[in-house]
Write a structure and sequence with these properties.
dipeptide transmembrane transporter activity; MetI-like; MetI-like fold; Peptide ABC transporter; about 80% helix; cell membrane; mainly alpha; about 325 residues; 2 domains
Length: about 325
Protein backbone atom coordinates (compact mmCIF):
# COMPACT_ATOMS: atom_id res chain seq x y z
CA UNK A 1 0.00 0.00 0.00
CA UNK A 2 2.86 2.39 0.81
CA UNK A 3 4.48 1.76 -2.57
CA UNK A 4 1.13 2.41 -4.24
CA UNK A 5 0.82 5.78 -2.46
CA UNK A 6 4.41 6.77 -3.28
CA UNK A 7 3.94 5.82 -6.92
CA UNK A 8 0.70 7.80 -7.20
CA UNK A 9 2.32 10.79 -5.46
CA UNK A 10 5.17 10.91 -7.98
CA UNK A 11 2.64 10.67 -10.80
CA UNK A 12 0.86 13.65 -9.24
CA UNK A 13 4.07 15.71 -9.16
CA UNK A 14 4.95 14.81 -12.74
CA UNK A 15 1.44 15.71 -13.90
CA UNK A 16 1.66 19.10 -12.19
CA UNK A 17 5.00 19.86 -13.84
CA UNK A 18 3.79 18.88 -17.31
CA UNK A 19 0.58 20.87 -16.80
CA UNK A 20 2.51 23.98 -15.75
CA UNK A 21 4.69 23.81 -18.88
CA UNK A 22 1.71 23.32 -21.17
CA UNK A 23 -0.35 26.09 -19.55
CA UNK A 24 2.50 28.61 -19.61
CA UNK A 25 3.40 27.79 -23.22
CA UNK A 26 -0.18 28.04 -24.48
CA UNK A 27 -1.05 31.25 -22.64
CA UNK A 28 2.21 33.00 -23.50
CA UNK A 29 1.90 31.87 -27.12
CA UNK A 30 -1.43 33.60 -27.67
CA UNK A 31 -1.02 36.14 -30.52
CA UNK A 32 -0.97 39.79 -29.54
CA UNK A 33 0.91 41.92 -27.06
CA UNK A 34 -0.83 42.19 -23.64
CA UNK A 35 0.86 45.55 -22.98
CA UNK A 36 -0.44 47.00 -26.26
CA UNK A 37 -3.90 45.62 -25.49
CA UNK A 38 -3.95 47.25 -22.05
CA UNK A 39 -2.64 50.65 -23.17
CA UNK A 40 -4.38 50.85 -26.53
CA UNK A 41 -3.06 51.29 -30.05
CA UNK A 42 -2.17 54.97 -29.53
CA UNK A 43 0.17 54.38 -26.57
CA UNK A 44 3.55 56.07 -26.62
CA UNK A 45 6.49 53.74 -27.35
CA UNK A 46 8.32 54.61 -24.13
CA UNK A 47 5.16 54.00 -22.06
CA UNK A 48 4.64 50.69 -23.85
CA UNK A 49 8.25 49.66 -23.22
CA UNK A 50 7.96 50.56 -19.52
CA UNK A 51 4.81 48.46 -19.14
CA UNK A 52 6.43 45.53 -20.95
CA UNK A 53 9.35 45.74 -18.53
CA UNK A 54 7.00 45.93 -15.56
CA UNK A 55 5.11 42.86 -16.81
CA UNK A 56 8.36 41.00 -17.48
CA UNK A 57 7.58 40.58 -21.18
CA UNK A 58 11.08 41.72 -22.17
CA UNK A 59 12.69 38.73 -20.45
CA UNK A 60 13.40 35.34 -22.07
CA UNK A 61 10.52 32.85 -22.07
CA UNK A 62 12.34 30.23 -19.99
CA UNK A 63 13.25 32.78 -17.33
CA UNK A 64 9.62 33.97 -17.12
CA UNK A 65 8.47 30.36 -16.69
CA UNK A 66 11.00 29.66 -13.93
CA UNK A 67 10.07 32.89 -12.15
CA UNK A 68 6.34 32.06 -12.37
CA UNK A 69 6.71 28.39 -11.34
CA UNK A 70 9.13 29.22 -8.52
CA UNK A 71 6.76 31.87 -7.21
CA UNK A 72 3.88 29.38 -7.13
CA UNK A 73 5.95 26.98 -5.02
CA UNK A 74 6.23 29.73 -2.38
CA UNK A 75 2.62 30.89 -2.72
CA UNK A 76 3.52 34.00 -4.75
CA UNK A 77 1.41 34.04 -7.92
CA UNK A 78 2.48 37.53 -8.93
CA UNK A 79 0.58 40.80 -9.27
CA UNK A 80 -2.55 41.30 -11.34
CA UNK A 81 -2.11 44.20 -13.75
CA UNK A 82 -5.87 44.70 -14.06
CA UNK A 83 -6.93 44.52 -10.40
CA UNK A 84 -3.61 45.81 -8.95
CA UNK A 85 -3.67 43.20 -6.17
CA UNK A 86 -1.72 39.97 -5.58
CA UNK A 87 -3.10 37.13 -7.65
CA UNK A 88 -3.00 34.79 -4.63
CA UNK A 89 -5.41 36.98 -2.65
CA UNK A 90 -7.61 37.34 -5.73
CA UNK A 91 -7.79 33.56 -6.16
CA UNK A 92 -8.45 33.00 -2.45
CA UNK A 93 -11.30 35.51 -2.52
CA UNK A 94 -12.92 33.91 -5.55
CA UNK A 95 -12.25 30.37 -4.33
CA UNK A 96 -14.33 31.13 -1.23
CA UNK A 97 -17.31 31.22 -3.59
CA UNK A 98 -16.48 28.51 -6.13
CA UNK A 99 -15.35 25.84 -3.64
CA UNK A 100 -18.49 25.93 -1.42
CA UNK A 101 -20.63 26.05 -4.56
CA UNK A 102 -18.93 22.92 -5.93
CA UNK A 103 -19.19 21.08 -2.59
CA UNK A 104 -22.88 21.91 -2.16
CA UNK A 105 -23.67 20.95 -5.74
CA UNK A 106 -21.78 17.65 -5.40
CA UNK A 107 -23.55 16.85 -2.12
CA UNK A 108 -26.93 17.52 -3.73
CA UNK A 109 -25.94 15.38 -6.71
CA UNK A 110 -25.03 12.41 -4.50
CA UNK A 111 -28.11 12.88 -2.31
CA UNK A 112 -30.32 12.68 -5.40
CA UNK A 113 -28.43 10.03 -7.38
CA UNK A 114 -27.88 7.44 -4.64
CA UNK A 115 -31.55 6.68 -3.84
CA UNK A 116 -32.62 7.00 -7.49
CA UNK A 117 -29.87 4.66 -8.68
CA UNK A 118 -30.71 2.09 -6.01
CA UNK A 119 -34.42 2.39 -6.77
CA UNK A 120 -33.93 1.97 -10.53
CA UNK A 121 -31.55 -0.98 -10.15
CA UNK A 122 -33.88 -2.78 -7.73
CA UNK A 123 -36.76 -2.43 -10.23
CA UNK A 124 -34.87 -3.20 -13.41
CA UNK A 125 -37.13 -3.52 -16.44
CA UNK A 126 -40.24 -2.20 -14.68
CA UNK A 127 -42.22 0.93 -15.38
CA UNK A 128 -40.67 2.78 -12.42
CA UNK A 129 -37.18 2.00 -13.74
CA UNK A 130 -38.12 3.39 -17.13
CA UNK A 131 -39.55 6.51 -15.50
CA UNK A 132 -36.33 7.18 -13.60
CA UNK A 133 -34.23 6.63 -16.73
CA UNK A 134 -36.45 8.97 -18.74
CA UNK A 135 -36.07 11.61 -16.05
CA UNK A 136 -32.27 11.25 -16.04
CA UNK A 137 -32.20 11.51 -19.84
CA UNK A 138 -34.13 14.76 -19.57
CA UNK A 139 -31.74 16.01 -16.88
CA UNK A 140 -28.74 15.32 -19.12
CA UNK A 141 -30.35 16.90 -22.20
CA UNK A 142 -31.54 20.16 -20.60
CA UNK A 143 -28.75 22.81 -20.39
CA UNK A 144 -28.03 23.83 -16.82
CA UNK A 145 -28.05 27.55 -17.64
CA UNK A 146 -31.60 27.23 -19.08
CA UNK A 147 -32.72 25.41 -15.97
CA UNK A 148 -31.00 28.11 -13.89
CA UNK A 149 -33.05 30.82 -15.57
CA UNK A 150 -36.23 28.84 -14.90
CA UNK A 151 -35.29 28.60 -11.23
CA UNK A 152 -34.69 32.35 -11.12
CA UNK A 153 -38.08 33.10 -12.69
CA UNK A 154 -39.92 30.69 -10.40
CA UNK A 155 -38.15 30.80 -7.03
CA UNK A 156 -36.57 34.27 -7.14
CA UNK A 157 -38.88 36.48 -9.21
CA UNK A 158 -42.29 34.86 -8.72
CA UNK A 159 -42.12 33.35 -5.21
CA UNK A 160 -39.13 35.43 -3.98
CA UNK A 161 -37.75 32.60 -1.85
CA UNK A 162 -34.12 32.92 -2.98
CA UNK A 163 -32.14 35.86 -4.36
CA UNK A 164 -31.86 36.12 -8.14
CA UNK A 165 -28.12 36.81 -8.08
CA UNK A 166 -25.18 38.34 -6.28
CA UNK A 167 -23.22 37.15 -3.28
CA UNK A 168 -23.32 38.97 0.09
CA UNK A 169 -20.13 37.38 1.42
CA UNK A 170 -19.54 34.92 4.24
CA UNK A 171 -19.95 37.63 6.86
CA UNK A 172 -23.66 36.79 6.43
CA UNK A 173 -23.59 32.94 6.37
CA UNK A 174 -27.33 32.46 5.93
CA UNK A 175 -27.48 34.98 3.10
CA UNK A 176 -24.44 33.39 1.45
CA UNK A 177 -26.01 29.91 1.57
CA UNK A 178 -29.27 31.28 0.16
CA UNK A 179 -27.32 32.94 -2.66
CA UNK A 180 -25.60 29.63 -3.51
CA UNK A 181 -28.73 27.47 -3.35
CA UNK A 182 -30.12 28.10 -6.83
CA UNK A 183 -26.71 27.89 -8.57
CA UNK A 184 -25.97 24.65 -6.70
CA UNK A 185 -29.30 23.12 -7.75
CA UNK A 186 -28.70 24.18 -11.36
CA UNK A 187 -25.30 22.49 -11.34
CA UNK A 188 -26.37 19.42 -9.36
CA UNK A 189 -29.34 18.21 -11.41
CA UNK A 190 -27.46 17.28 -14.64
CA UNK A 191 -24.67 15.71 -12.58
CA UNK A 192 -27.22 13.74 -10.52
CA UNK A 193 -28.75 12.43 -13.75
CA UNK A 194 -25.35 11.20 -14.99
CA UNK A 195 -24.47 9.68 -11.63
CA UNK A 196 -27.83 7.90 -11.39
CA UNK A 197 -27.33 6.19 -14.74
CA UNK A 198 -23.76 5.15 -13.90
CA UNK A 199 -24.79 3.80 -10.48
CA UNK A 200 -27.75 1.89 -11.93
CA UNK A 201 -25.58 0.27 -14.63
CA UNK A 202 -22.87 -0.67 -12.12
CA UNK A 203 -25.42 -2.14 -9.71
CA UNK A 204 -27.15 -4.18 -12.40
CA UNK A 205 -23.80 -5.59 -13.53
CA UNK A 206 -22.89 -6.42 -9.95
CA UNK A 207 -26.24 -8.06 -9.23
CA UNK A 208 -25.49 -10.65 -11.93
CA UNK A 209 -22.33 -11.84 -10.15
CA UNK A 210 -22.12 -15.30 -8.56
CA UNK A 211 -21.60 -14.06 -5.00
CA UNK A 212 -24.88 -12.12 -5.20
CA UNK A 213 -26.69 -15.27 -6.33
CA UNK A 214 -25.08 -17.15 -3.44
CA UNK A 215 -26.23 -14.49 -0.98
CA UNK A 216 -29.75 -14.67 -2.36
CA UNK A 217 -29.70 -18.48 -2.21
CA UNK A 218 -28.82 -18.24 1.51
CA UNK A 219 -32.02 -16.30 2.10
CA UNK A 220 -30.85 -12.69 1.84
CA UNK A 221 -33.52 -10.42 0.41
CA UNK A 222 -32.92 -8.55 -2.86
CA UNK A 223 -32.83 -5.16 -1.14
CA UNK A 224 -30.36 -6.38 1.51
CA UNK A 225 -28.12 -7.94 -1.13
CA UNK A 226 -28.30 -4.69 -3.07
CA UNK A 227 -27.29 -2.44 -0.18
CA UNK A 228 -24.91 -4.74 1.73
CA UNK A 229 -22.99 -6.42 -1.10
CA UNK A 230 -23.69 -4.93 -4.52
CA UNK A 231 -23.44 -1.24 -3.61
CA UNK A 232 -19.87 -1.32 -2.32
CA UNK A 233 -18.62 -3.34 -5.29
CA UNK A 234 -20.36 -0.93 -7.69
CA UNK A 235 -18.65 2.14 -6.22
CA UNK A 236 -15.51 2.08 -8.40
CA UNK A 237 -17.14 3.65 -11.52
CA UNK A 238 -19.22 5.89 -9.26
CA UNK A 239 -16.09 7.25 -7.55
CA UNK A 240 -14.56 7.93 -10.98
CA UNK A 241 -17.59 9.97 -12.01
CA UNK A 242 -17.62 11.79 -8.65
CA UNK A 243 -14.01 12.87 -9.12
CA UNK A 244 -14.71 14.13 -12.62
CA UNK A 245 -17.87 15.88 -11.48
CA UNK A 246 -16.16 17.75 -8.65
CA UNK A 247 -13.48 18.93 -11.06
CA UNK A 248 -16.14 20.08 -13.50
CA UNK A 249 -18.17 21.81 -10.81
CA UNK A 250 -15.11 23.68 -9.59
CA UNK A 251 -13.73 24.67 -12.98
CA UNK A 252 -16.69 24.55 -15.35
CA UNK A 253 -19.28 26.76 -13.67
CA UNK A 254 -18.43 29.85 -15.75
CA UNK A 255 -21.89 30.15 -17.31
CA UNK A 256 -23.75 29.56 -14.05
CA UNK A 257 -21.56 32.08 -12.21
CA UNK A 258 -22.35 34.66 -14.89
CA UNK A 259 -26.08 33.88 -14.77
CA UNK A 260 -26.17 34.47 -11.00
CA UNK A 261 -23.44 37.17 -10.92
CA UNK A 262 -21.29 35.12 -8.55
CA UNK A 263 -17.71 36.34 -8.03
CA UNK A 264 -16.14 32.89 -8.45
CA UNK A 265 -13.12 31.47 -10.23
CA UNK A 266 -15.03 30.83 -13.43
CA UNK A 267 -16.06 34.44 -13.76
CA UNK A 268 -12.58 35.60 -12.77
CA UNK A 269 -10.87 33.62 -15.52
CA UNK A 270 -13.45 34.82 -18.07
CA UNK A 271 -12.76 38.44 -17.11
CA UNK A 272 -8.99 37.89 -17.10
CA UNK A 273 -9.09 36.43 -20.63
CA UNK A 274 -11.09 39.38 -21.98
CA UNK A 275 -8.66 41.81 -20.27
CA UNK A 276 -5.53 39.87 -21.36
CA UNK A 277 -4.32 39.65 -17.76
CA UNK A 278 -2.01 36.73 -18.50
CA UNK A 279 -0.65 36.23 -15.00
CA UNK A 280 -4.19 35.79 -13.65
CA UNK A 281 -5.14 33.41 -16.47
CA UNK A 282 -2.05 31.24 -15.93
CA UNK A 283 -2.40 31.15 -12.17
CA UNK A 284 -6.13 30.42 -12.07
CA UNK A 285 -5.86 27.67 -14.68
CA UNK A 286 -2.93 26.17 -12.76
CA UNK A 287 -4.95 26.19 -9.54
CA UNK A 288 -7.83 24.47 -11.32
CA UNK A 289 -5.50 21.87 -12.84
CA UNK A 290 -3.98 21.32 -9.39
CA UNK A 291 -7.48 20.75 -7.98
CA UNK A 292 -8.29 18.25 -10.76
CA UNK A 293 -5.06 16.29 -10.26
CA UNK A 294 -5.43 16.23 -6.46
CA UNK A 295 -9.06 15.06 -6.76
CA UNK A 296 -7.93 12.26 -9.09
CA UNK A 297 -5.23 11.32 -6.58
CA UNK A 298 -7.81 11.18 -3.77
CA UNK A 299 -10.08 9.14 -6.05
CA UNK A 300 -7.30 6.59 -6.50
CA UNK A 301 -6.95 6.40 -2.72
CA UNK A 302 -10.70 5.92 -2.44
CA UNK A 303 -10.43 3.01 -4.90
CA UNK A 304 -7.96 1.30 -2.59
CA UNK A 305 -10.19 2.00 0.44
CA UNK A 306 -13.27 0.54 -1.25
CA UNK A 307 -11.72 -2.42 -3.05
CA UNK A 308 -9.29 -4.56 -0.97
CA UNK A 309 -8.09 -6.27 -4.15
CA UNK A 310 -6.38 -3.02 -5.19
CA UNK A 311 -4.60 -2.86 -1.82
CA UNK A 312 -3.29 -6.41 -2.20
CA UNK A 313 -2.24 -5.74 -5.79
CA UNK A 314 -0.44 -2.57 -4.71
Amino acid sequence: MRQYLIRRFFVLLASLWVASVVIFTLVEGVPGDPASFMLGVNAAPDTLAALRTQMGLDQPLIWRYLHWAGGMLTGDFGQSFTYKVPVASLIAERLSVSLPLAVIALALSVALALPMGLFAASRRGRFSDGTVMAGTQLGIAVPNFWFAMLLVLLLAVHWQIFPAGGFPGWSHPLGALRALTLPAISLALPQAAILTRVLRSALIETLDQDYIRSARAKGLSRSRALTRHALRNALIPVLTILGLQFSFLLAGAIIIENVFYLPGLGRLIFQAITQRDLIVVESVVMVLVFAVIVVNFLTDLAYAAVDPRLRRRA
